[in-house]
Amino acid sequence: MRLFEAIIDANHRAVAGDKEAGLHPADFADELPVIALTCIDPRLNAFFPNALALPAEQFIWLRNAGNIITQPLSSTMRSLALACAIKGGREIAIIGHTDCQVCKTTTMQLLDKLKELGVERHLLPDNLTEFFGMFGSERQNVIKAAGIVRQSPLIGPKIPVHGLLLDIETGKLDWVVNGYEAWQAAPGQTEVTKASSPISGALGSLAGFNFGEMKFPEGKIGDLATKAEAWVAQKAGQVEAALPGTPEMKAAVAKQVVEYAEKHWPQPAGGKPPKLPLPQPIRPRIIQPRGRR
Questions:
Q1: With contact defined as beta carbons under 8 Å apart, do 90 and 32 qualify?
Q2: Tens digit of each residue's pLDDT (9 = 90 or more) over 27-56
Q3: HSE-up of residue 100 (Cα within 13 Å, Cβ side)
Q4: What is the SS3 string spanning the chain?
Q5: What pLDDT is stored for residue 131 in this prediction?
Q6: Which of 46, 104, 142, 227 is 20 to 30 A (C-alpha) from 191?
């Protein structure tokens, strides 16, 4: 049994009334300390690190509103990376909670609250949902955050990334993303491929498609802006049709096609290549709550 499997087991037993439920941190010395990102909700103060059955010195606690991560190179990702590199964090847990007020707040309500504080709309970014990372489901928010962390170039492939949801009423922890399972690659891949991501394995199984041989349509530079989206969509569709695997894996490979096109598309002097649409980001699969082993 690995660290977070033991944590979940001990937590579930404790919530069920087992007064002997607990954890022996010394048994998991190679997997400690743990880095946890949670919300800033003050109700969580009473739960951590007790809900994980860990001593405070083995718990690196990061917090932001809604335990939100918006980008793989965001300031929160910088803190996670430094916690791993400098503080020696061995595993990461994104821990959401029920009854999250960020989840319950609409964009219009946020605007009203900001206006009450003297913040005018014209001073804010156009896309408030994207900027503030607002979400409609605590569970989906944890899945998204764990996926961004796992794919971030700032986090080494040796660091498992878990997603958990805390019941604010009972203190019960449930699996949302099991980092040990999401961390493993398909059998038969090399260690390097296992350590990187499932995308590498997908590319290895894609026969007959060479990114370096992609031929771009001819024409005037000014005409490319109108042709770019349709052309790249066609190429991405060809890749997805030829590639076996899950829809998430296919979408990830298609994204690489788009990124290659953006990088190598002919650029007009003094200008930028046309903006190309990206496919949906790959996300870890949902792991149902696990009972006592």
A1: yes
A2: 999 999 999 999 999 999 999 999 999 999
A3: 27
A4: CCHHHHHHHHHHHHHCCCCCCCCCHHHHHHHCCEEEEECCCHHHHHCCCHHHCCCHHHEEEEECHHHCCCCCCCHHHHHHHHHHHCCCCCEEEEEEECCCHHHHCCHHHHHHHHHHCCCCHHHCCCCHHHHHCCCCCHHHHHHHHHHHHHHCCCCCCCCCEEEEEECCCCCCEEEEECHHHHHCCCCCCCHHHHHHCHHHHHHHCCCCCCHHHCCCCCCCHHHHHHHHHHHHHHHHHHHHHHCCCCHHHHHHHHHHHHHHHHHHCCCCCCCCCCCCCCCCCCCCCCCCCCCCC
A5: 86
A6: 142
What is the mean pLDDT of the segment spanning 205-225? Answer: 47
Provide the token pair at 103.
Answer: 């989840």
pLDDT of residue 134 exceeding 90, the answer is: no
Residues 58 and 35 sit within 8 Å (Cβ to Cβ) = no
Burial class (CB in 10 A: 0-12, 13-18, 19+), 232: buried
Averaged pLDDT, 244-249: 60
Q: Are 250 and 206 in contact (CB under 8 A)?
A: no
Average pLDDT over residues 269-286: 47
